[in-house]
Specification:
The chain is α/β, with parallel strands linked by helices. It has two domains: 118 residues, Rossmann fold (3-Layer(aba) Sandwich), CATH 3.40.50.2300; 92 residues, Winged helix-like DNA-binding domain superfamily/Winged helix DNA-binding domain (Arc Repressor Mutant, subunit A), CATH 1.10.10.10. Helix content is 41%, strand content 21%. The protein contains eight helices and twelve strands. Strand 11 and strand 12 form a beta hairpin. The structure holds calcium ion. Calcium ion binds next to loops.
Length: 229
């Protein structure tokens, strides 16, 4: 039975193979990647249901991989950590790790964690309508309303506002916003983000809850409850 694709990012082949074996036995399709950049490509090309992510990778580390994944997709991530200080970093960075295991770990335990995370994620339906203060972002109708009155938004402005509103309270860098709204393969100036933010703010007027975070980028402040995760 096809239960969906799990991406395993681990440069130690023996660990990757073992995890592959156990997950495949449970009916998951397993993709393996040994580098961080390879993992990002695989996420984009194969849209896995979940990522098992080692922190120590030969190119960019697992935390950075997670940061970039999270900029574009709300994809569950289970970290593999080698040392206690890596655990501290996972927990300290508020990347929203869904779970983590410290090496050496039991593959059966990993399978149990994968199932538990997927059960939890599947229980949460993606919000079609995001309410952010006086602003309503209606994903079904692709419409922005301020105090219930529709405001004309371009496609990119809409995507940008929704991207921020779905991550309330989170300071996002211009690069994260670019990756999330324009895509990884869009090569352009990060100032593009500033230009579009300015447009969005103008259209929302005093209903805008977008805050500039100095040295970082932007954050959506919201009085609406944060998404469950
Ligand atoms: Ca490693």
């Amino acid at each position: 039975m096809e239960k969906g694709t799990i991406l395993v990012v681990e440069d130690e082949a023996n660990i990757a193979d073992l995890v592959d074996l156990y997950l495949a036995r449970e009916g998951y399709r397993v993709l393996k990647q040994a580098t961080g950049l390879g993992a990002l490509d695989a996420v984009r090309d194969h849209r896995p249901r979940l990522v098992v992510l080692d922190i120590g990778l030969p190119d960019i580390d697992g935390l950075e991989v997670c940061r970039r994944i999270r900029a574009t997709a709300n994809l569950p991530v289970i970290f593999l950590t080698a040392r206690g200080d890596e655990v501290d970093r996972v927990l300290g960075l508020e990347l929203g790790a869904d779970d983590y295991l410290t090496k050496p770990f039991s593959p059966a335990e990993l399978v149990a964690r994968v199932k538990a995370v997927l059960r939890r994620v599947d229980g949460v339906a993606p919000a079609e309508i995001v309410q952010s203060g006086r602003v309503t972002i209606d994903g079904g109708r692709r419409e922005i309303r301020v105090d219930d009155l529709p405001v004309d938004f371009t496609t990119k402005e809409f995507d940008l506002l929704r991207f921020l509103a779905e991550r309330p309270g989170l300071a996002l860098s211009r690069q994260q916003i670019l990756d999330g709204v324009w895509g990884y393969d869009w090569f352009g100036d990060v100032r593009t983000v500033d230009v579009h933010i300015a447009q969005v703010r103008k259209k929302l007027g005093d209903a805008s809850a977008i805050t500039t975070v100095r040295g970082v980028g932007y954050r959506m402040d919201s009085t609406s409850p944060a998404r469950a995760s």
